[in-house]
Write a structure and sequence with these properties.
Blueprint (H helix, E strand, L loop, with lengths): L12 H14 L4 H8 L3 H8 L7 H14 L1
Helix pairs in contact: 2-3, 2-4
C-alpha cells in the first residue's frame, strides 16, 4: 500500500490522517506499534491521524515505511 504523495501546500491533513488511520486499522496495528516503528510518540501519531498536527513529506514517508515493514 502506498499513500499518494502530493505537494504539501495541497495536502488535506485531516483526510491524510484519516487514510493513515484506516490503513493502520485494516492491518490490525495499534498506534503504539506503528508509532514505535515510525520513530514518534503515540500522542504525535494520534494527533496526525486526527488532523491536529500537520503532515510533512518526511513524516508521511516514515509512517508509510512503518506500515509496509509491519505487514
Amino acid at each position: 500500500y502506498r499513500i499518494q504523495t502530493i505537494p504539501l501546500r495541497l495536502v488535506d491533513h485531516i483526510a491524510t490522517g484519516s487514510q493513515v488511520r484506516q490503513e493502520r486499522r485494516k492491518r490490525n496495528l495499534t498506534l503504539q506499534v506503528v508509532s514505535a516503528a515510525a520513530g514518534m510518540s503515540v500522542v504525535y501519531l494520534s494527533n496526525l491521524e486526527r488532523g491536529k498536527r500537520y503532515w510533512t513529506e518526511e513524516l508521511l514517508k516514515r509512517v508509510e515505511r512503518a506500515l509496509e515493514n509491519l505487514s
